[in-house]
Amino acid sequence: MAEEAILGFLQQNEEITDSGQFSSEHNLDHDEVVNVIKSLHGFRYIEAQDIKRESWLLTDEGKKYAAEGSPEVQVFLAVPAEGSLSKDELEKKLAPSVFKIGWSQVGKNKWVQMGKQVSRKVKHVEDKVKNLLLQTQDGLELDKESLKYLEGRKLITSRTWKGYSVKKGPNYAPKRKNFATDLTRENLQNWKELEFKEYNYNAKGLPVDAGHLHPLLKVRKQFKDIFCQMGFEEMPTNNFVESSFWNFDALFQPQQHPARDSHDTFFLKAPSTTRELPEDYVERVKQVHESGGYGSRGYNYDWKREEANKNLLRTHTTAVSSRMLYALAKEPFAPKKYFSIDRVFRNEAVDRTHLAEFHQIEGLICDRGLTLGDLIGVLQDFFSRLGMSKLRFKPAYNPYTEPSMEIFSYHEGLGKWVEIGNSGMFRPEMLQPMGLPEDVRVIAWGLSLERPTMILYGIDNIRDLFGHKVDLDLIKRNPICRIGIE
Ligand SMILES: N[C@@H](Cc1ccccc1)C(=O)O
Questions:
Q1: How would DSSP label each residue in 351-376?
Q2: Before 80, cis peptide (omega within 30)?
Q3: Stretch (H or E) spanning 96
Q4: Separation between Cα atoms, residue 216 and residue 342, nearest integer Å
Q5: CA 448, CA 456: separation in Å to the nearest integer?
Q6: Structure confidence by residue, pLDDT tens digits, 285-339
Q7: Which residues pair with 339 in a beta bridge?
Q8: 94: CA distance to ligand 1 center in Å?
Q9: Which of 17, 69, 73, 482 has the most CB atoms around its CB within 10 Å?
Q10: Is 145 exposed, middle or buried (0-12, 13-18, 19+ CB in 10 A)?
Q11: DSSP 150
Q12: Structure pTM?
């Protein structure tokens, strides 16, 4: 409405001299008129010039007198037209503040006789203050002296009024054009008929809603911090594709082991085999599988090179540990603590607790003379840093560790013992062919990253945590959970 009024007025007239006046003449809200002026100015339909004016507003006290009359007139009217009354009697007739202010004013104005008795001195009085206040309220201009007087009595205060004078601008039109703003298919097809809005390179874009950490990343960070605090170095795990040799054979896992079946492992079609392996080491691995050595009888089967060459998606990060230990064995011996947290792959039926790819956390310590007691002690230290200090161990079997132990922790929240990992001491059949000194022992453990994360975040279906069905809201709004689930 205001827009039509402004553009229409300028069609016939040179100028709107004062937006305030214009608003009251056209019965428009001045704030709305100002908004329209700003917008039309932005598109250069109009030119606008600021106008600033001092305007006056009544204070609360001023408003009261404008309605009820000034206190001096109220006092005057309380004095009888004929005769007199005592000051006390007069005071009782009026509100204390009215009496107090009015009394001093009637004195100044010489309207009443102020002796023992009070009586009128004049017949009529004019309520000048009330009239001036009413004029101010109506927006009429008062002379300087009156303004100073009312301001002195704190009945009015000044406010800077802002408005505009308005003329036609370079893009003036009696009606605003609708510009096309989006590069839609329709707009592009009709581009000849349309006028596009100009780009505003100074406009700020929408705030970017991105950059949230997935719960798995938050928990991974906490595990990483714990390993680093315990002096572990991170292993390079950036190869998802591994040969069967490093994933299985180097770990003394026999070639007919069920895990090496394609039902359990993803084998690669291309490249289906590895290009090179360290030949002398391969020979020693073959020997230990076939006929043992280092105090072992071996598995007594025909070890096949083709089987070791097959490429696969690594089924555990222990494949990386075997590469690292082999590299370590080539140097003069130095003790090491290694860890990794990265992705592994298993050809499994997916259900609420299993995925075909998940993350494995792996830690190992390699030093002379380590014992099972050291492994238990390190595990106690490691898991208590996670807030899990009640641990139990259960004998287990891995082809590459002896002894092997499953790790259970008492979960206070769930009120039961839960399996949290697997561990053991690497076998001599694994370490000796690498060339590590005979008294060097390696203690190691592994667990999934998903399981503790699910426990922490109260997620009971792994597909709600990882994969294409994950709710983005989970990623945007997950809290920071402290590991320490006790
Ligand atoms: N590699 C084992 C975990 C493990 C690591 C190190 C020693 C013992 C066990 C697994 O996949 O479950």
A1: BTTB-SEEEEEEEEEEEET--HHHHH
A2: no
A3: helix 96-109
A4: 11
A5: 13
A6: 999 999 999 999 999 999 999 999 999 999 999 999 999 999 999 999 999 999 9
A7: 234, 363
A8: 96
A9: 73
A10: exposed
A11: H
A12: 0.61
Residues 150, 155, 158, 161, CA torsion sign:
negative
Question: If you measure from the C-alpha of residue 246 to the centroid of ligand 1, how many angstroms do you get, rounded to a whole number?
Answer: 14
Residue 463 backbone phi and psi in degrees, to 5: -70, -15
Q: What is the pLDDT of residues 365-395, one digit of tens each?
A: 999 999 999 999 999 999 888 888 889 999 9
Sheet strands (E) in 302-426: 311-313, 336-345, 357-368, 391-398, 401-411, 416-426
484 band by pLDDT with thresholds 50, 70 and 90: low
* pLDDT at residue 213 is higher than 90: no
Euclidean distance between CA atoms 331 and 319, whole angstroms: 20
Mutation pick for ligand 1 pocket among 358, 362, 378, 447 (CB with most ligand atoms within 8 Å): 362
Of the residues 422, 430, 431, 448, which should be mutated to test ligand 1's pocket, given the most ligand atoms within 8 Å of the CB? 422
The SS3 call for residue 110 is coil
Measured CA to CA, the distance from residue 23 to residue 8 in angstroms comes to: 14
Ligand 1 atom, smallest distance to 317 CA? 1
**pLDDT > 60? residue 88:** yes
SS3 228: helix
